[in-house]
């Protein structure tokens, strides 16, 4: 027995050393980078691995991209759909190996975390070849740009706007979508007066709906975080930010039922509340229109309308532009093919015909948005209008942690419920977020 | 057995308490099954209906045809079977070694094994990932099986060890006097007697491997090699919301094999556990 | 034996050694990509032990573990005794109900819980509102209130833990020597004192075993908390398991996560040390 133990011990020690040695062998891309993105290469027999997040891109869109890619390169594409839960662990570990996926689909607010740590390829030199004459939306490109270098290539955008029950509003006497803050509050008051039920919300706004909370903060000139001398500082407690938080609280408390103060937008689903007629409006993204219609088969698209939430200081409140960008793994064995694939995925044809045409998502550039504006259905118009005044979350590496730890949900729901004053909640938030942003 | 049970006559008070208990304890299971048969449009109502009106199989159809069900089911079966078989075999040998053979450091090894069991799994995932990456085990069923064995093995060894300890040493001595080899002693005499311990180990390994999401999701590369929990997670996404009815139907399907496994083995399992505790 | 031992060592011990090593480094997300990290000695440990949030999680974990263990053991032992007083049919029904609750995978159970306790549409919210004791709870968000979140998680964990305990204890209780019970009855002892004087001492080792197992499992309970409350609101339901998860996976501060895991294991080891010592000793006697 003792002999076996010694053998085992030796095997153990050896293997542990190996594993650790492996950890410390870093490495850049294993093949050299091209000078520009070539029109065509001969890469027959090779396979490019692309990771796409669940529900981000439809099969038709991906097929169209892949078909063109195979035409240009002869290579095949292996598309892997990934569920959302645990994706940051999966990406962080996979991008560190010597056989990472070549192209990955990342949320636009998540890029900085991977980029500053060297997981993604710096594509600044290929910017022109990738943009293909388009002006990318600032809300997508900014958070993908870290210290002046580009690490993410805009794929599509998504933002929030007010979705309202047009029929209900008309019955209450509001027939025009409001365009100023005063018109908005007047309209909501009218809708409220016509629907006296206690749990009715003229505009249902869950307390944890931090995207909207940020809109109010920005609308009052506040910032959630700013960069000072290259260091990120959390600024929810600044005067302007506090004013925004207070305005958020007042709006939330006035127009949304008391029961909504602590809840999130998906428990219960706000689309369900709207569909059930328990709310006159919600603030949600594009996909929520379909979700609302699915939740109540009696509603049709004609019953719903959308508009950009008017601002107090600006025409429309700045909205947070979410969306998806493509990243290329720094350790990809085939950066050239990865660049070609990405170039196709973001080109104006794919954007207008598939990303917008097939999926109804907002394209990645101002030109593409203009190109499709004529084809906009009425329920889409509000989203595109709102996107014209858009912002992005801070391009700080620690931002992923701020989102991951639910700090913003907590900030806005404790204020909405009155569990903490805006000052207290902001101070608590700044302490934690400041730590994460460092 | 039956004569012993007669010791206590059934009492009406006990029956009433048990009935209440059963209703409370069965309710979550019932609610899951009921929701699974409720049409999606009727699922979210402010006043819940306690009976499945308009029962439908549509949710099960959605669940089964959700991308990846059959692939992921196959992966789960491969991985769980592999993990159970090897965890039982390895646990058996290790437990036999630790309880039947005397060697230096045995006591320390036992304490270490128990301490390992107390380390939160979240912390070992990334080190394990790095080691498996070096060994080329990522993205393979073998790797996933090994990961599951390693997380249940310490517990298995402890459990089986108590059964080995419970066996009288005279049994072996008698067998050895009859001229049986060590191997024969192990296979013919000891193993049948530690069967309850093997069952307990297989149940715990089964549940652990069947349930795991994060290891399967991070260690596997090909989506067709993900296991069922990954498929279960696909019913809620931040973009399209949660399909509660579909999710409940999926949960029923996901729970079914475990229920079957338990119904078959539970009697042996609990007798084994308690016997092991009493004697060990 | 030898190949089994080596495979075992390779899959279990090497990652553990790597983890122990990492606890003394600043290994983080960047190290995953670049392979660079530096040795920091005990800095991770001192950092954790001086972090008030760690101690808050620790206290929370102790209290919550105690509540879970006491709840599941008391109900489990009670149910087990109850089962000895039931007709065969009723006992079978109870066993089936228990096995179903036990068998439900905790991922599925957590989904069911979230659905039952969903604000606005959850059946529990509706039932509690109908009771008219707690007022209108239709829109109560269980995850948003510390006390309610703990109650929901407690119910979930106990619901799943009781069957194992009840069935295991019951199996032991059927082994109680009938001659002792009959003798006690002849002496005119009441049912309660028979249970206390004859049955309980006999069950003691089994109860001790399930209690220790419950302590080990409940101390590291993570899935149920994460799926119900994500450690919120404001970290107030964050136990050591959640704290470790957030450190290792959300912050990807792997070195600190490793140190945290070691501290957790040592604390848990200390809590269960009496039991461990007894077990080892009884093992060595043989």
TrEMBL record, chain A:
Q: Gene3D superfamilies, alphabetically? A: Periplasmic binding protein-like II (3.40.190.10)
Q: Which GO terms describe its biological process?
A: maltodextrin transmembrane transport; maltose transport
Q: What PROSITE patterns does the annotation carry?
A: PROKAR_LIPOPROTEIN
Identify the keywords attached in UniProt to this record, alphabetized.
Answer: Signal, Transport
Q: Does the keyword Transport apply?
A: yes
SUPFAM superfamilies under this entry?
Answer: Periplasmic binding protein-like II
Q: Which residues constitute the signal peptide according to the record?
A: 1-21
GO CC annotations, alphabetized: ATP-binding cassette (ABC) transporter complex, substrate-binding subunit-containing
> At the top level of its lineage, which domain of life is listed?
Bacteria
Q: Name the InterPro entries on file.
A: SBP
The reply on keyword NAD is: no
Q: Which GO terms describe its molecular function?
A: maltose binding
The UniProt similarity line reads:
Belongs to the bacterial solute-binding protein 1 family.
This protein's name = Extracellular solute-binding protein
Q: What is the lineage of its organism?
A: Bacteria, Bacillati, Actinomycetota, Actinomycetes, Micrococcales
């Amino acid at each position: 027995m003792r002999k076996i133990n010694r053998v085992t011990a030796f095997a153990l020690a050896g293997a542990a050393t190996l594993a650790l040695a492996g950890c410390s062998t870093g490495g850049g891309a294993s093949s050299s980078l091209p000078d520009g993105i070539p029109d065509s290469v001969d890469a027959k027999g090779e396979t490019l691995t692309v990771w796409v997040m669940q529900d981000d891109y439809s099969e038709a869109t991906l097929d169209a991209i892949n078909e063109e890619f195979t035409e240009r390169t002869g290579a095949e594409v292996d598309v892997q759909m990934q569920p959302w839960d645990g994706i940051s662990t999966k990406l962080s570990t996979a991008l560190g190996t010597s056989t990472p996926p070549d192209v990955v689909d990342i949320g636009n607010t998540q890029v900085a975390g991977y980029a500053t740590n060297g997981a993604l390829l710096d594509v600044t030199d290929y910017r022109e070849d990738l943009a293909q004459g388009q002006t990318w939306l600032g809300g997508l490109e900014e958070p993908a740009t870290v210290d002046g270098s580009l690490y993410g290539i805009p794929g599509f955008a998504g933002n929030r706007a007010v979705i309202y029950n047009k029929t209900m509003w008309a019955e209450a006497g509001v027939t025009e979508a409001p365009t100023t803050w005063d018109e908005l509050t007047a309209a909501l008051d009218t809708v409220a007066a016509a629907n006296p039920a206690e749990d009715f919300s003229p505009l249902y706004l869950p307390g944890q709906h931090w995207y909207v909370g940020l809109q109010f903060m920005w609308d009052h000139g506040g910032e959630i975080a700013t960069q000072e001398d290259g260091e990120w500082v959390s600024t929810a407690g600044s005067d302007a930010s506090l004013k925004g938080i207070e305005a958020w609280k007042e709006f939330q408390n006035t127009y949304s039922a008391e029961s909504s103060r602590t809840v999130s937008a998906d428990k219960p689903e706000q689309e369900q509340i709207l569909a059930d007629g328990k709310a006159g409006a919600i603030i949600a993204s594009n996909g929520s229109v379909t979700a609302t219609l699915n939740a109540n088969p009696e509603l049709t698209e004609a019953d719903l309308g959308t508009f950009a939430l008017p601002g107090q200081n600006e025409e429309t409140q700045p909205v947070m532009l979410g969306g998806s960008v493509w990243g290329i793994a720094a350790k990809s064995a085939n950066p050239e093919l990865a660049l070609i694939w990405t170039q196709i995925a973001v080109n104006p044809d794919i954007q207008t015909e598939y990303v917008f045409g097939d999926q109804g998502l907002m394209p990645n550039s101002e030109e593409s948005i203009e190109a499709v504006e004529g084809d906009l259905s009425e329920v889409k118009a509000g989203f595109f209008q709102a996107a014209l005044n858009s912002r992005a979350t801070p391009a700080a590496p620690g931002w992923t942690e701020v989102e991951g730890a639910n700090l913003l949900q907590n900030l806005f729901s404790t204020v909405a419920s009155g569990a903490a004053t805006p000052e207290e909640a902001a101070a608590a938030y700044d302490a934690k977020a400041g730590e994460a942003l460092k | 057995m039956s004569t012993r049970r007669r010791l206590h006559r059934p009492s009406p008070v006990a029956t009433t308490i048990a009935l209440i208990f059963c209703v409370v304890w069965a309710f979550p299971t019932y609610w899951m099954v009921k929701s699974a048969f409720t049409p999606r449009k009727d699922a979210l109502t402010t006043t819940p209906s306690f009976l499945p009106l308009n029962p439908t199989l549509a949710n099960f159809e959605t669940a089964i045809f959700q991308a990846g069900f059959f692939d992921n089911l196959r992966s789960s079966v491969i991985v769980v079977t592999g993990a159970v078989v090897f965890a039982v075999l390895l646990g058996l040998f290790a437990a036999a070694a630790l309880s039947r053979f005397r060697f230096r450091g045995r006591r320390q090894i036992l304490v270490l094994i128990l301490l390992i069991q107390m380390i939160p799994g979240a912390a070992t995932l990334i080190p394990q990932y790095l080691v498996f990456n070096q060994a080329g085990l990522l993205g393979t069923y073998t790797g996933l099986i090994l990961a599951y064995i390693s997380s249940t093995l310490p517990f298995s060894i402890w459990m089986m060890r108590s059964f080995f300890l419970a066996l009288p040493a005279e049994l072996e001595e008698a067998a050895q006097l009859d001229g049986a080899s060590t191997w024969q002693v192990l296979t013919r005499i000891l193993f049948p007697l530690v069967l309850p311990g093997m069952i307990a180990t297989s149940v715990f390994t089964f549940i652990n491997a069947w349930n795991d999401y994060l290891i399967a999701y991070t260690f596997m590369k090909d989506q067709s090699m993900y296991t069922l929990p990954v498929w279960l997670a696909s019913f809620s996404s931040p973009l399209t919301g949660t399909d509660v009815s579909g999710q409940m139907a999926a949960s029923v399907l996901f729970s079914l094999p475990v229920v079957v496994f338990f119904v078959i083995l539970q009697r042996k399992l609990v007798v084994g556990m308690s016997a092991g505790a009493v004697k060990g | 034996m030898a190949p089994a031992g080596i495979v075992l060592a390779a899959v279990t011990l090497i990652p553990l050694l790597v983890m122990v090593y990492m606890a003394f480094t600043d290994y983080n997300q960047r190290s995953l990509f670049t392979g660079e990290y530096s040795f920091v000695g005990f800095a991770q440990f001192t950092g954790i032990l001086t972090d008030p949030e760690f101690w808050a999680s620790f206290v929370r974990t102790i209290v919550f573990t105690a509540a879970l263990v006491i709840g599941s053991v008391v109900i489990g032992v009670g149910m087990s005794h109850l089962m000895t007083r039931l007709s065969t049919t009723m006992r079978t029904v109870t066993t089936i109900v228990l096995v179903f609750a036990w068998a439900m995978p905790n991922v599925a159970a957590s989904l069911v819980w979230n659905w039952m306790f969903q604000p606005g549409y959850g059946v529990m919210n509706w039932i509690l509102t109908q009771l008219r004791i707690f007022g209108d709870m239709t829109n109560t968000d269980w995850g948003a209130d510390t006390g309610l979140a703990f109650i929901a998680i407690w119910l979930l964990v106990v619901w799943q833990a009781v069957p194992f305990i009840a069935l295991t204890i019951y199996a032991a209780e059927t082994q109680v020597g009938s001659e002792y019970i009959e003798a006690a009855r002849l002496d005119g002892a009441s049912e309660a004192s028979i249970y206390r004087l004859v049955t309980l001492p006999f069950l003691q080792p089994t109860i001790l075993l399930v209690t220790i197992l419950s302590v080990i499992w409940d101390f590291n309970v993570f899935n149920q908390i994460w799926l119900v409350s994500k450690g919120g609101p404001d970290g107030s339901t964050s136990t050591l398991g959640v704290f470790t998860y957030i450190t290792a996976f959300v912050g990807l501060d792997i070195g600190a996560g490793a140190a945290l895991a070691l501290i957790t294991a040592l604390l848990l080891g200390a809590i269960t040390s009496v039991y461990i010592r007894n077990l080892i000793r009884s093992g060595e006697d043989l």
